[in-house]
Design brief:
Elements lengths: L1 H7 L7 H4 L3 H11 L13 H5 L6 H28 L1 H4 L9 H4 L4 H21 L10 H4 L3 H21 L7 H19 L7 H26 L3 H4 L8 H25 L11 H16 L7 H7 L1 H20 L3
Helix pairs in contact: 5-8, 5-10, 8-10, 10-11, 11-12, 12-14, 14-15, 15-17, 16-17
């Protein structure tokens, strides 16, 4: 927070160019700073309701949707917070220098106020879940109820990501595990808010896949920045390409194995989902191709939205899962 206070009082933060920006321009810059493209990550909250075959329950879908919006706002607040923390290093990055805060199109004071407003909105959405009654809470009632559990998971996500931005991103290996835990918390939040029980194998798949994306991101940063990598992100001096390549190989194998075991061994799964294993393999191979050959992977959500093969694979895989779980007879 001291870092943020210093930035807000710096001469650059109050430059004439920024004061001349229109309100509409600042609002647009704020929206860009919230990174709505990355909200696709929060679709992980629907994993629980989909695989529990509760997607067509309007009451539960409403709860999952509120949880999705809450995590979108929470993640946006974290993006703004991290951009404030990384302001100077982002200005040295060939792509990140165009982010609103680094480029100067979003005033620092606006970002600080927006973070507070977003956190208040998250608290309001979590509170609103108490007004959507649940039936048959069973084990969740004994644990304190689905609503308090969701609030705890949401708060844990925000606190963990803030700690990541302040300190944990500078701890080698732990930084990528923190990124992966963010996805696991999304899955957990989507499960407790309904509430349903999800196979532990699905959590393992989520963590492994998240680690793959995080390692791919680190590799892309090393390749893109070359000798200047550690100037942009200090932790990058602790990594090198041979280490990251070995870790990616391990995590890729573990992801495929975990998903395969989930499809034909998990008590909450469906063995017919084995039909999606080739698609999962192809999607991972395509991602590795983009990382190693096309030198991409720095922004996984952009890779998903921009690459037609990746997007088509994900859409087809989701369609097959929906058909298997909701259309075909059991």
């Amino acid at each position: 927070m001291n870092r943020i206070n210093e930035l807000s009082s710096s001469p650059q933060a109050m430059s004439p160019a920024r004061s001349e920006l229109s309100v509409a321009g600042r609002l647009f810059a704020l929206l860009r700073g919230m990174r709505p493209r990355q909200w696709t990550k929060n679709l992980a909250l629907f994993v629980g309701i989909v695989f529990a075959q509760k997607l067509l329950d309007p009451r539960l879908f409403e709860r999952a949707s509120i949880a999705f919006v809450a995590f979108c706002l929470a993640s946006s607040s974290i993006y703004l917070f991290n951009d404030l923390q990384d302001l100077e290093s982002d200005r040295q990055h060939p792509k990140k220098k165009n982010r609103p805060l680094a480029a100067g199109t979003l005033p620092i004071s606006w970002a600080i106020v927006a973070i507070g407003v977003l956190w208040l909105c998250c608290a309001g959405l979590a509170t609103s879940l108490f007004f959507i009654p649940l039936v048959g809470k069973d084990v969740f009632a004994s644990l304190g109820g689905a609503n308090p559990l969701f609030a705890c998971v949401l708060a844990s996500y925000v606190i963990l990501m803030v700690l990541y931005g302040i300190r944990l991103k500078h701890v080698v290996l732990l930084d990528v595990f923190i990124i992966a835990s963010g996805f696991a918390l999304r899955i957990l939040a989507g499960a407790v808010v309904i509430p349903v029980v999800i196979s532990p194998w699905l959590y393992i798949v989520t963590v492994m896949l998240s680690l793959l994306l995080a390692l791919g991101k680190r590799r892309n940063e090393l390749v893109l920045m070359e000798e200047q990598a550690s100037n942009h992100r200090q932790i990058l001096k602790e990594y090198n390409l041979p280490l990251l390549d070995q870790l990616i190989t391990i995590v890729t194998s573990a992801t495929v194995m975990s998903y395969s075991l989930y499809t034909f061994q998990a008590t909450t799964g469906d063995y017919r989902l084995m039909i999606t294993i080739p698609l999962v393999l192809y999607g991972m191979f395509r991602y590795l191709y983009l990382v190693y050959v096309k030198k991409e992977g720095g922004s996984p959500e952009e890779v998903l939205l921009r690459d037609r093969h990746m997007l088509g694979t994900v859409v087809l895989c989701v369609a097959i899962v929906i058909v298997v779980l909701y259309v075909l007879p059991h």
